[in-house]
Amino acid sequence: MAAIFINYRSQSEAYAAALLDERLSKRFGSNQVFRASRSIDAGEDYELAITRAIEQCAAMLVIVGPNWSQHFTKGADTDWVLQEITKAMALTIPIIPVLLSKVDRLRAEEVPTELAKLARVQYLRFDYRNLDQDAEKIAQELAGSVSPPPPRRRWRFRKKGR
């Protein structure tokens, strides 16, 4: 299963999640990056797939866009972002907030109580003005948690009679 789980709000952070997925997949292989809208097959139970992916990941990236903390719903059972993060916390999976352009550092009083710890976690940036550098920095931070993709096998054709 994928070593990197990308957590994001589909209403506001989907573009950044897709772009980061693309960059990390090139570096580590697409099978090492889980992004729900790409990684869950049609007809598959998404709740089971997400739970399994979280349980098997080595790190979770939490994409934080503008107004991210204002979108939490009252019922935790309907807020997948909250569910995914709290599940990762319960399993002590490393969580890295990835702040998008112009997003301020998370503050404990602005997030649900169960996510207050996230405000104390060192974050990374993913800014549209520095996409290459920021994606590389994120990849470097994750490199110790993710196995590199196996080298591509080069086929050699032998001449007949050898």
TrEMBL record:
<feature type="domain" description="TIR">
    <location>
        <begin position="1"/>
        <end position="146"/>
    </location>
</feature>
<dbReference type="InterPro" id="IPR035897">
    <property type="entry name" value="Toll_tir_struct_dom_sf"/>
</dbReference>
<dbReference type="GO" id="GO:0007165">
    <property type="term" value="P:signal transduction"/>
</dbReference>
<dbReference type="Pfam" id="PF13676">
    <property type="entry name" value="TIR_2"/>
</dbReference>
<feature type="region of interest" description="Disordered">
    <location>
        <begin position="140"/>
        <end position="162"/>
    </location>
</feature>
<feature type="compositionally biased region" description="Basic residues">
    <location>
        <begin position="151"/>
        <end position="162"/>
    </location>
</feature>
<dbReference type="InterPro" id="IPR000157">
    <property type="entry name" value="TIR_dom"/>
</dbReference>
<protein>
    <recommendedName>
        <fullName>TIR domain-containing protein</fullName>
    </recommendedName>
</protein>
